[in-house]
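Handoff note, outgoing to incoming analyst
You'll be picking up this chain. Sequence as last confirmed:
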Amino acid sequence: MHVRGGPGGLRTYLRGAWGMPNSRRVRPPDPLLPVVVSRAQARRAGLTDRQITWRIEHGQWKVLRRNVFVTPVPGGAGLGADDGRLVAALASTRREVVVGRAHAARLWGLPCPLGGWGDPVLLTADGPHRNRDGIRIVVTPLPEQGVVRRRGVLVTSPVRTVTDCLRVLPPVDALAIADAAARSLVAAPLLVAAVDLLGGRPGIVQARQVVASPTAPGSSGAATPVGRRASSARQTARPSTGCAPPNGAASTPNASRRCSMPSAAGSSGCAGPA
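Most recent structure output, in case you need it:
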């Protein structure tokens, strides 16, 4: 048998004849990386900038923000954009923070605001406020009864979540969230009582007007301008395109979008798929 090309040609022939793999075409597996990884972390794990760029260009990694990426979840279908933003926000701080407001409602399976979930808002009892890079950290009182751990993440309790949403979200969204919560999470009288205890917190006027609406859960009060606008708008508005339910389910204005939040390891409090 004569093989052209000398020893190199012989190696090529043997690979083809005996099915031997071509080592130059076998890509080694990625090192074990967190779900949210910075460029610096990926470099320390052994990846080069060229390898990082290749994974981004071929859709294997998703860019969250400058030099921060979401990597594939082992054994899973990956993260949605809302999950990724939340994990990135939790990973961005070493302070003990609590998921609040709209993203807390998302974790409790409550309806999506018509404008989408927006950027995560994290609550903490100490330290400075922060509002940059799409991440907000708000300093606020956090009594123990207002915080629970859900899917590996600290999140405001159902009552605190709904009262916060009543204060800070548009009335149309606040009303829908309160109504859904009263059907499955919190008794309507308890929500009304919780609003009464808010005192002079910012947004208390709107919260009281929404719960006084005749369409609000458990309400027997007269209609208010805010309540009328919220009820009418929610009935006629289309759901946000950014809030489609998972698994291709049809979206409706009052549909609950269940979040498949990954639990977390490290500073984010998350460690893999839930």
